[in-house]
Amino acid sequence: MPIRPIYAVLERELLRMVRQRTRLVAAMVRPLIWLLVIGGGFAAIAGADYKSFLVPGVLGMTMLFGAMLAALGTVYDKESGVMRMMLVAPLPRAWMVVAKLIAAAVAAAVQALLLLVLLALLGYVGRGSEWGLLAAAIAATSFACAGIGMLTASFCRTLENFAGIMNFVIFPVFFLSGSLYPVRELPPLLYWAATLNPYTYGVDLLKHALLRGGAGADFSVALDLAVLAAATLASAAVASWRFSRESAYEPMIHVPAGRAR
Amino acid sequence: MNAPQAPGVTTSAAVSAVGLSKRYGELAAVEGLDLEIAPGEFFGLLGPNGSGKTTTMHMLATLVRPSAGTARVAGFDIAGAPVQVRASIGLVFQESALDRTLTVAQNLRFAGLLHDLPPRVIEERGRELLELFDLTGRRDQPVAALSGGMRRALDIVRGVLHQPRCLLLDEPTIGLDLPNRRRIWRFIERLRARTGMTVLLTTHYLEEADGCDRVVFIRKGRLVESGAPRELVARLGRYILEVEGADLDGLAAALEQKLGPALREGDVAHFRCRDEDLALLAQLQAESGGKASAWRVRRPNLNDVFLWVAAGKRVA
User: Please, which residues bridge with residue B270 across strands?
Assistant: First the structure.
């Protein structure tokens, strides 16, 4: 395993995260808005427990956004040309995808841990939590989200369509999960969509870890872990294949004018 | 220019290509290119825009797969052992590969770690190379704060940090002003003097290729001329006659009878002349009877070779 190259990509990702403070602040504020404002509002209809129900969902949201943004940095690397340094590195292309995936997952997990501290200070996370399971849930969910991110990045030529990615990938993945409502109470069509969404199982695992006795969870811990692992591996495999194609690097590799696309 | 190597024979050449070709649909970017570059050689790949220089570089650097043909770089096959090839080369792209938001040192650390260098080695070599490239003191500045010339220099440092056996420079001085171009060449000279590494470069600035041990001209993806710069210039002719005039077409047609085909460059007609043409030139000038508004005889240089090659004319 090319440890140093993977570490290089990870270190750069963390440097970027620390430097882009507004992105980091947004990663903390966004879930808190959902929890305090939307959770507070819906608590009026759904009952005071709704806010606690929402805690795993907003923790997951931090990982989803954090991992997606970091993974989509791959497209930015392509546009800015920084990926040239990775292209000339003496390692098989697939490792570049793995390195980026690990970096995105770690960035997401770090953001989740920061948010966890905030949530604990605010009193939303406490003694009912199963810490070992929580650690596993954060790790597995971060990796799965990073996988979805790398898969998305491997289909993006430019970041121009970032709004499209927001609307057609990030939002559906978030809304069609158990983040805001129990999956089993969804109408059939939405229920099926949610069960096909790997992110659902990440949120479910967080519910097992954070809600007393796994209240509100829809699936078993074993199923959650299995689906998340499978989703991570599958998306890594497809993204590696996509990034092994020469055409994935066209913005950086000279293609003569007049070439028929 | 070189006999094709029998397959499987290991070569001591730094770079050897046989029939290297790249097609994009109908378009042949590179066609049947043969190259043989000796270790330590300073080798120039020249040709007009779109002649296939960059595509060739990218094939040798394993970024682009050839449609046909093979090449070995530092003894490794570009198709069979791309990772080993990338480990033995340094590639400096036409465009920057640096992260503008990171500092100089952070960029080198990133590049070095990607090449599996230990942090201590990156630190040491980085310091030496930054000194060699006059960048000491810039270590902790973000790349965005560097001038274009400094960024180019840093990109070369980045490309040689892992001590490649062969350095590929794709238009290393493009977009730079003259003082910066000269600086970059001084750096490359220092680097060659210190490491003895093979350098393969492409450039548009032909006077810069004068320092090469050997150059090849490619046109439309094919090799058209090769040799030492001085030898190529000598092959072109002893003198170049440049003629301007009101009725240039008529004038040139008359002169072509005596001097061979002309090369038209805007309002100037160029003719290649041999030593023995010198007496003839004086006579022709007298005969033209003032029809020429300018009549210049000068020594040819590599730019002339380039112009004749670009116009699709044989130089031999």
Answer: B242, B263
First-residue to last-residue Cα distance in chain A: 36
In chain A, the residue whose alpha carbon lies closest to the alpha carbon of B66 is: A246
Number of helices (H), then strands (E), in chain B: 11, 14
Residue A259 lies in a domain: no
Q: Scanning every residue of chain A, which has its alpha carbon at the shortest distance from the alpha carbon of B168? A: A88
Structure-token pair, residue B143: 């790349």
Which domains are seen in chain B, by residue range?
Answer: 15-228 (3.40.50.300), 238-299 (3.30.70)
Say whether B102 and A5 touch across the interface (CB within 8 A). Answer: no
Residue of B nearest to A6 (CA): B114
C-alpha–C-alpha distance, residues B288 and B253, integer Å: 12
**Residues B171-217: pLDDT tens digits?**
999 888 989 999 999 999 999 999 999 999 998 788 889 889 999 99
Q: Give Cβ neighbours of residue A51 (< 8 Å, ≥ 6 apart).
A: A35, A39, A40, A43, A124
Q: Model's pTM, two decimal places?
A: 0.90
Question: Nearest C-alpha of chain A: how many angstroms from B77?
Answer: 14
Out of B89, B90, B116, closest to residue A2 by CB? B116
Q: Is A89 on the interface with B (CB under 8 A)?
A: yes
What ipTM did this prediction achieve? 0.92
